[in-house]
Design a protein that fits this description.
9 strands; Aminopeptidase; two-stranded antiparallel sheet; alpha+beta
Length: about 220
């Protein structure tokens, strides 16, 4: 669903998320932004994240570092560093502002000191709105999602919105629900006092795997 451009502010963006819509652009060079409210919505159940055997082996092998909000701009720019992206200059500006105000967050995966993967999004109440992710090394985004879902669940979140569903997300447990179902879940999530800073980030892959196994 699209609507005419409005003067975009961080406050308006937060109101849009609370109403179940989000912004996109056609491509990086398009100055216009439109609103989207999909008929079918992708969500990643926080108690149903699927860690495959190969991903579990990768996590046990270690050799990577996990951080939260240490390089938001780096993650944002890495997500936009592809041939076809909806992250234009206006969207970049808005999310950097949201991050500065404490509403947008990024989880980073590093190998050899360099960004290897990551994911960023917006937190409101008990809902986390995943915006984009990237991989520069094998399993970079999968590692980021494994650690982020674990952290969100420990911090009291109940809804992880992925906007759309892709084969990559489906392999990790994401499902597609109706717009009405999504709005009902969103309404409940927004009333919860979750806080992404409520718990320290767990950087130990073995602990994340153990908690994931206990839920299975």
């Amino acid at each position: 669903m699209t609507a005419p451009d409005l003067t975009l502010t961080p406050g308006l963006l937060l109101q849009a998320y609370a109403a179940g819509i989000f912004p996109m652009s056609e491509h990086r060079d398009d100055p216009h932004v439109f609103w989207v409210d999909p008929r079918r919505r992708g969500v990643l159940p926080l108690d149903g994240f699927h860690i495959s055997r190969s991903l579990a082996r990768r996590m046990r092998r270690g050799g990577y570092a996990v951080t939260l909000n240490t390089d938001f701009a780096g993650v944002l720019d890495a997500c936009a560093d592809r041939e076809d992206t909806w992250i234009n200059a206006e969207i970049r500006r808005l999310y950097l502002d949201l991050h500065a105000r404490g509403h947008a967050h990024a989880l980073e995966i590093r190998q050899d000191g360099l960004l290897a993967g990551g994911v960023y999004g917006v937190a409101l109440g008990g809902a986390f709105f995943g915006e984009s992710m990237f991989s520069r090394r094998t399993d970079g985004s999968k590692l980021a999602l494994a650690h982020l879902t674990d952290h969100l669940r420990r911090c009291g979140f109940v809804l992880f919105d992925t906007q759309f569903i892709t084969p990559h997300l489906a392999s990790l447990g994401a499902v597609e629900i109706s717009r009405d179902d999504y709005h009902a879940r969103l309404h409940e999530a927004l009333d919860l006092p979750a806080d992404i800073r409520a718990q320290p980030l767990c950087t130990d892959p073995h602990s994340v795997l153990q908690r994931n196994t206990q839920r299975s």
